[in-house]
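TEACHING EXERCISE
Course module: macromolecular assemblies
Task: Read the component lines below, then compare them to the predicted structure of the full complex.
Student: A.B.
Group: 4
Components provided:
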Amino acid sequence: MQDFNFIKPTNLEEVSSLLINYKDKARLIAGGTDLIIALREERLPSNLEIIIDISHLKELDYIREEGGYLRIGSGATHVEIAQNELIKRYAPLLSQAASLIGSPQIRNRGSIAGNIVTASPAADAVPALIVLDSRLVIRKGQEKREELLQKVFVGPYKVNLKSDELVEEIYFKKLPQKAKSDFSKLVRRNAVDKSRVNLAVVAQQNEDKKVIDIKISAGSITPLPQRFKEAEDLLLGEIPTANLIQKTGEKVAEEMMVKSGYRWSTEYKEPVVKSLMVRALNRVLEVE
Amino acid sequence: MVTKKIELNIKVNNKDYKLLVSPNKRLLDVLREDLGLNGVKEGCGIGECGACTIVMNGKNICSCMVLAGQAEGAEIITIEGLTGPEGELHPLQEAFMETGAVQCGFCTPGMILSSLVLLRNNPSPTKEEIRAAISGNFCRCTGYQQIIEAVQLAAEKMRKGGVKVNG
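Instructor-supplied answer key:
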């Protein structure tokens, strides 16, 4: 295990000033489910001096409704998100995604912001948050800035946050009552496994069954979390038919190959992504 | 780099401790090395196998995924804390023996502690609920069937006997 000093600040203000003082010599720890592994494998830069614990901070542990928005403190754990009534009602796919992360033990510790800033391409909460158009509130000292979630990812396991910044909150608009959402994932075993493919969809149709909103994102199949705009465009404004849904599934698989290239797993993943996508779309859309 | 030991106040199995520990110790190391609680096992060390499961502030967690300092002020239950003052076994421990749910025994403490949390929140779980509750605990020898039977039997014992679940 790498050496470091451990600090347990009493509030967020103290955390912010420690980050400003120590910059890249400091790392935050919340659930620790990724960081502790990295520390044990001595993968953190050797200039590491302090680990700042934020797992106990009540200021970061909340889920609340504010106007048309849901606001989630960065320290909220996966189990809190999975079981929260507001999230079940207004963003059910996020509840689904959180309930499928890791294992009960991991969900009891891991935080939503940890899932984001670790930036694993297989992160389960991320595609769900992307189709919700989530924004991050990022804090540095007393200053705050906002960023669209998608914009913070710059590479696998890389986010463009500065070392003196921290994620304070994630927020998004509540889904309209008539919108439907779905999160699904493919794993090799039923528990404690990384997603091979995960898919998140939000959709809404009007009275004539015309698709008036469709957002698709996926994890584990592209280097960066992204929306599948070309696939979305096939459906937007249309009344979905079985044929159109097939084509949309194919388009997602096609976009995956454009972004990820032909890999050893492509022969398997291409048909699987397509059919998982078709199934997900059939769950959220009324088809002619 | 010179590191400074940290003071750690924790309540483990209903006993208060004040310890001075290295900042880069995990809670798992503190429990095993400083307190001699060897019922807490280290399996994978990366939060996947659940052998190091303990109950911390009412939740089952992997003690290999918590830095010592993060446990400051916490209330912790390990397998050693389930036994009564006269050495009497907890219904979960009895049930695991009675159904043959223990073979090598390495996963047993974690299995029992995940089950304890389940039974505290849900005194009459279904098989599916038991499976979900122990899905973060791997057994590589006995197989899960006897373990599920053990949890069902323990639930029954506790409902009948009016046993209050510790912690």
